[in-house]
Structure formats: C-alpha cells, structure tokens
Amino acid sequence: MTEAATILFEERQIRRRVAELGDAITQDYAGRSPVLISVLKGGAIFLADLIRCIDLPVRMDFMSISSYGGGTKASGVVRILKDLDQDIGGEDVVVVEDIIDTGLTLSYLLSTLVAREPASLAVCTLLDKSARRIPPLEIRYRGFDCPDRFVVGYGLDHEERFRNLPMILAVESQAKLAEDPSVLVPFLTAGDRQPPSPAAPDRA
Ligand code: IMP
User: Among 2, 1, 7, which residue's Cα sits nearest to residue 187?
Assistant: First the structure.
C-alpha cells in the first residue's frame, strides 16, 4: 500500500532554515524595528517561530483575507476580513507567508500595502511554488523551493486540519485525503519532539 503522504521537509530541516532566515533579517534590518505581517491563518505558525530567531525589537501584526467567489480567483483580488492594527506608513514592513503558489493573492495584497506608503516592503516566504508563479514577484527571503504538489503541515492545512504537523508533507492523493482525512493522523506523532529535560530545582 502506498503512503498517504511523504515527508518533504523534516522538522529539524525547517527549524534550521527558519533560524537562517531570522539571521538574515537580523542583519538586513540592524538598528531598525521592522513590522512583520502575517496572513492568517497558515503564516502564523511560521511567524511565531521566525520572530524568535530575530534579534531585533520587531513588531508583529496580522491580516485576515478571504477570496471572492466566482470568477475573480484568477485576479487574486481578496476581501480584507481583518485589517492591520497599526498604521504602516513610514515603517519597514516584512510580509511573512507560509507558501506562495500562483502569487496572485500576495501580489494583490502587496499593492494594497504599498498604497499605505511603508518605508520599505519585503516578502519572506517559507515555501515557494515558483513553477506556478503568474505575476512576477520579488521575494527577498525564501525558505525552500516547493514542488508543484499539495502540501500540508507547519501552518498549511487541508480543510483546517494538520496545521499542527511539525513537518511539511506532500500529499500523494488529494482525492484519498478528501475521502478520509484521518490517513494523515499517524504523522502527528512522527515529529522529533524531545522529551522534557528534568525539572530545574525550584528556586521559589
Ligand atoms: P496563491 O494566490 O495562488 O499564491 O495562493 C496562495 C494561498 O493558497 C496560500 O496562502 C495557501 O493558503 C494556499 N495554498 C497554495 N498551495 C497550497 C498547498 O499546497 N497546501 C495548502 N495551501 C496551499
């Protein structure tokens, strides 16, 4: 029987790459306090890990968007369900994405952010499905190039599930997954989580 999915990026590999991206951002924005913006929900997992690898007084903010139904998907036009809490005018902004596929959504989002006149605007994505790109996009920070496969884990979902997988999986058959989403459950316990170290003596 074929596996329901294969591991594309291991937990350890992701951790190492996220640390490298954090180092690059720390160097590039030295002396500044960039605002890291994540698009809910997938990007939140990556953002949470990334900011802890950046040695700067960064700020974070979130947006939530939804695609319009009908024929507008190809334009990437989205409706903003939750806007940023802060004004980004004059700020150094880094948009943090879990995955860029066609890039249509991000391209539209960037145009709305540019209109707010940030001092600078850069993109950081963990995964880049570059083969599917439609509009040209400048991606300053890229974790991994991603094959044209449906992937889940580390923030990426299948019908809201499996965002909590510690690794990133390439699904073998989306039809089979749709039929029985539980086929990926065994991967939930397949991470390399370390057992907790012995408790430090209580200094209270
Ligand atoms: P784009 O506008 O085509 O770039 O769409 C990007 C969005 O599609 C991402 O933010 C994800 O929410 C979703 N997406 C694209 N590819 C995948 C995938 O392989 N797994 C899960 N979500 C995906």
Answer: 7
> Is residue 106 packed enough to be buried (19+ CB in 10 Å), middle (13-18) or exposed (0-12)?
buried
**What pLDDT was estimated at residue 197?**
66
Question: How far apart are the C-alpha atoms of 151 and 172, rounded to whole Å?
Answer: 9
Q: Give the contacts of 55 (CB within 8 A, at least 6 positions apart).
A: 22, 26
Look up 101 and say whether it is catalytic: yes
Q: Phi-psi category of 177—alpha, beta or left, where left has phi over 0 and alpha has psi -120 to 50?
A: alpha
The pLDDT value given to residue 196: 61
Q: What values do phi and psi take at 185, rounded to 5?
A: -55, -40
Distance 19 CA to ligand 1 centre (A): 23
Query: pLDDT for 12-28, tens place per residue?
Result: 999 999 999 999 999 99
CA-closest candidate to residue 154, choices 1, 3, 17: 17
Contact 4, 172 (CB under 8 A): yes
Reported pTM: 0.91
User: Six-digit token pair at 129?
Assistant: 């499905």
Task: State which ligand 1 atom lies nearest to the alpha carbon of 76.
Answer: 2
Measured distance CA(12)–CA(167) in Å, rounded: 8
**154, 156, 174: residue to mutate for ligand 1 pocket, most atoms within 8 A of CB:** 156
Mean pLDDT of 126-140: 96
